[in-house]
Structure prediction request, 513 residues.
Amino acid sequence: MTDYSDLKFTAQHEWVRFEPAADGAAPTATIGITSYAADKLGDVVYVDLPDAGTVIADGAIVGEIESTKSVGELFAPVDGTVVEKNPAVEDAPELVNSDPFGEGWLIRVEFTALPELLDYAAYQALLGDEESAH
Amino acid sequence: MTAGPLFSPLHDEHVAAGASFTDFAGWQMPVRYSSDLTEHHAVRTAAGLFDLSHMAEILVSGIDAPRFLDYALAGKISATKLGQAKYSLLLTEQGGIVDDLVVYRTGDERFLVVANAGNHEAAVAALSERATGFDVDVRDVSDETALIAVQGPLSRGIVEAVLDVEPLHALRYYWSVEAHFGGHPVLVARTGYTGEDGFELYIAPNAAPELWAALVDAGESSGMVAAGLASRDTLRLEAGMPLYGHELGLETRPADAGLGRVPNFTKGEFVGRTALESTPEPGAGAGTTASRVLVGLIAEGKRAARAGYELFESDAASTPIGVVTSGILSPTLGVPIAMAYVDPAFAGVDTPLSIDIRGKRLAYRVTEIPFYSRKRDLS
Prediction:
């Protein structure tokens, strides 16, 4: 089971997990899309992720997640620099569907600034609003 | 249109099966049950079960019915035999396409016309209007008709197990036969929109849930799964079948879309004939649009071009020479495929073209349609 308590969320359905930093190292965050977003997209067949070293800014489009039917954009949820993209998900994009909060993570970022993010309860409330709007 | 969404008579079955829904022409229809790709592959290798109850059915009957349909539609419907199905087009006076549809001859003077859900009202209106002066009854029976499709190489055994029907091995592609299910009449047609062998079953809505459940039971051991509209779209695109609103429209003429053989000029007057005869070459268009013809495109890699993306002669060129109408990463072939309208000068097979995919150019080349053909061993 995913422990959602250590995750933060965006209104664009990304999740962010803050990783403990070793002494002296900059703090990093792992980023992916939520199971809700993955379900809405359908079967993910291709991901286009930013390379290590790419500087990203909160709210900018930094990647694409394509399903059989549509294209989803990955918005940077933080300011920072990409330190790693998930090679497993590039080879097997279906991980985004099968394990969105785990093996299906997308990028790891050394962050310099953090915007306001939602906690799990607030994100769940947002999903409730989205569903009832349909 | 009525306010609020329309629901299939099978809606409760879809909810119980955990389907995700999408709006399609005002209908809440299953887009997928679990996975588009699983559903797609099941149809290619075993069988898939589709609810197509949103489609429009129009009953045309009367002594003039054959002659009327010859006038109202592009094909020679009067030449069909009892039980035969025929793909045809409903054209405008300008030769544009109001709808593409399938006509089933269910009697000497009786035909079932099946139209797209999105063109339900346009098709009923056009047929009703064109009926003036003919001794014919045009009746919209969509509310009295549910449609379930079983598609895939194992579909025949599943349908035979459930229906009270003659053995179906002798039923040819694009033919239909009367059958029964629990005392309810069923029109069984060997037709479909997936590129596989398969059957479409027309039945009264009140009997549809029971038929659906019986098919689910009968298909389980064969690996049949319920399949949604997402897989229907990827299946039809691999099979090179046009979709109204994408490859076909009021500004499209049959020859532009590779359907130049659908209109039959050996019969008498029909709506659109004069316009088609005055400029018969493909790519003329039905309106003011530039000359264009439909082609298939294929690429390497995994990035799919989508509807609306522009095509160029080369990566360096900045003047578009065409536009994508449908595009996917083909689940069966594993590479991107698309259909597009292009300037006829660029329509030759193997012509290299460049597509702008959200700011990045990707190399495609023109290829034959269909992209995928099943092995034809109907038995």
